[in-house]
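Write out the 3D structure for:
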Amino acid sequence: MGRALGWLLLRLIKMATLLRTFWQGLLLLLLLGLLAQPGQAAEALCSGATCYTLHWGRLSWTEAQSKCQNNGGNLATLKSLEEAQLVGQLLAMRPGRGAGSEAEVRLWIGLQREKGRCYQKHQPLKGFTWVAGDQETEYSNWAQEPRETCTAQRCVTLQGSPSLSKGLAWVDGHCSWSAQGEAGYLCKFSFQGMCRPLALAGPGTVNYTTPFGIATASLLAVPFGSMAEVACGPQGAEVANAFLVCKMQENSNAFEWSSQGPLCASPSHGCNYSNGGCEHQCLELGGGLFQCACHSGYQLGGDHLSCIPVDYCSSNPCRGHCLPRTGGFDCLCLRGYALAADGRDCVDVDECSAPQNPCEQICINTQGSFTCLCLPGYKLAKADGQTCQDIDECAGVTPCAQLCVNSRGSFLCSCQPGYQLEGSSCLDVNECQEEPCEHMCKNLPGSYRCFCQPGWRLDPNGISCILDTAPSTSSPPTEGEPGDPVDIHPGSEPPMLLSDSPIQAEHERVFVSQVTTFPPEVLSRPLDAEDQAEHDSAEKNMGSSKQLLYYIVGGVVAILVLLACALILVTYRKMEAKKAKNEAKSVADNYSWVPDQREARAGSNEYM
């Protein structure tokens, strides 16, 4: 009695659930009926996340594309051999037109070439494009080369016999409808996912209504959003039992039917009829009751019929990315991290300690990555962020006072001739200290000049001095008169010629390099007008200076003469005094002393 009451209660719950599902399905069916175009004679084939439909009728390419778009799709694109094989299976499903049929068909596909676009021989699509606007495909199946025209739109049909001996191939032509053979078009629809076909636990039928307007009882996979009408009972006496919708399961990417099963179940059948409608296992509970179960790694879906993989990643067991698989999960780490020994944690990878350093110069490890740096004098290349480029320090504002030479990772400073390097500065070299001139030398910034004594002139070599024997129009050259200065080592300042400035100031700044010289080689050369004028001006200046020099020398000579005379006078007087003394001494020496008689006697008495 208790078991019967439980069974009755279970049936009442099922009836309430079916009633709720019925109203939901009815609303969805009405919506699909508004969007779809009922009454179309078509076959459908679904696989993966794609459905293909085959429609018959003589339409132009543009009309066929519009029909497909109205149902949410496009004319079929066949970008791979697998897609072409699915279309072949769809053609084989035609009632009375199996794979052995020799009737030729012409079916529009979504490949066309707009007016103004030309034939491209070396491309797989020959200049044609798919309805999505892309040409990225390596697969092609041309029956013959398309026409090389750019003046009209060209469209492609899948043409030939479905039999394996001939097959189907692409043929281009006008975009109007064809009057030859069986004509039609192929549509393609894409979905997020699919539900498995319903399996009933007892006698009954299932009819599917797809979102693209096709009603059929046979689908290998049912697209998301489709309706299923279930009628239970023997053939010819079925009674509507449930309306189901293919939907996405909450918190999962799996797709399942909205109503719980089993469907059309009865105590007399149990698990014996179609495995009770269960996808994996059907478990008998006794008394005609049973339930569905799943293999290891799977769990029952919301319909209690289908089995979906267990989502082991829902608890976030991995520190990185969790990849579910049948019976478990795998942990994956982001780039720059490696899986730890426990198989779940992720540890940082030290890229800088790898056998092949990713950086050209300096590598600094960071969490999950690394940073490249460069040595002083280099900068990081923007292209890859790992190689280092030399910095041209000499470009732009140079760090050197005069000359800058760039080198790998650094630079060198140098100076122009006549200067010496001190750090990054250039100091003038006093060349006169090396006595480069034969007579006199004057130091200049970055250079020097040689001068000659009066009566001499500078040799063309700018160093030696030669006796000036050239005639002069003003006055003959006098001895000791300097010649023309010549800059023999150009520096930063232009050469300076002698002018009307006082020659004495020049003599105070010159350095006399040599006092004695070898007899110069007598050379003569004519002077031009400019040289003659300069020479005459120098002679006038030298004349006034020479008079002053003579006065100075004369005064010095007079003083020396007076000093000499005084010295001679003093010497003479000393000699006279000495001579007088000697003469007095000589007169006294001529006399002899005679002892006094008294003394003689006294002396004789003593000895006596």
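The chain is about 20% helix and 25% strand.
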